[in-house]
Amino acid sequence: MKPTFGSYTECETIPIYYPPQYQPQQPGIESIMIPRPVSENPAYAGSGKLRDKVAIITGGDSGIGRAVAYAFAKEGADIVVVYFNEHGDAKETWTRINQLGRRCLTLAGDIGDESFCGHVVEMTIRTFGRIDCLINNAAVQFYQESIESITREQLERTFRTNIFAMFYLTKAALPYLKPGSTIINTSSETAHVGFKGLIDYSATKGAINTFTRSLSMSLVDRGIRVNAVAPGRTWTPLQPASLPPKLYMSAGFEHPLRRDAQPWEIAPAFVYLASDDSTYVIGQVIQVNGGSYFGQ
């Protein structure tokens, strides 16, 4: 019997169509998506790989960030969920992390504002007393048919949210990161293959790859490891919030697995990079994309 879509066991190349749907804002609200993304693999029990560590996760209220938060909580970490203004999603994530037996702090604001990034770090230290892992995950994207349609305002917002925030948060957190701490950035397959309707977004993801490699070289002598995960197309609120239906309704059909990922399928790569399983891994961009890009 074939597993139904949305189950954690689904691994066959079954094309999935998503219905057209409306999202009132970016980066999107998970609770109104049809179907809902699958954020948690119930078969994933955790083994204490991140016991009593503290992780800051931007965009942790939904999508890949939420899935990472759940996986980290199952591995024993306490979580700081940083999000924009999706309060309902954040509450849902907070509730589940508490059900998993870990503590969760939620902080709403614009990570493109350097002062807010400082506030995130301050509240994390005040609440938990430490930072062990910084996950720079949050992003925005705005589909445009041509570069001529990309306004200065859009360009600045995309770069401010997607890459400037990584600088701001890293600088703010660095004084509290000790040897053995990790920084994990969320890149994208678009950094490698491009995407004609997401020129500015793809450019920020290319910048994230170089930021990751350069920062890893800068911090290696301090015992802090820096890496990135580059997901392929994943069913998150960002997709219907930013893409025309023709692009997300059959997303991933051209990939070998003929579907896009569910967020829980991306999360284990973050667990690997945050844990002692990856002590010899620095400056890498791990591709988790269903075979859409195999590297050079």
Automatic annotation (TrEMBL):
It holds the Pfam family adh_short_C2. InterPro entries: NAD(P)-bd_dom_sf (IPR036291), Sc_DH/Rdtase_CS (IPR020904), SDR_fam (IPR002347). Belongs to the short-chain dehydrogenases/reductases (SDR) family. This is NAD(P)-dependent dehydrogenase (Short-subunit alcohol dehydrogenase family). GO terms for molecular function: oxidoreductase activity, acting on CH-OH group of donors. The keyword Oxidoreductase applies. One of its GO terms (biological process) is bile acid metabolic process. It comes from the Bacteria. It comes from Paenibacillus prosopidis. Keywords: Oxidoreductase.
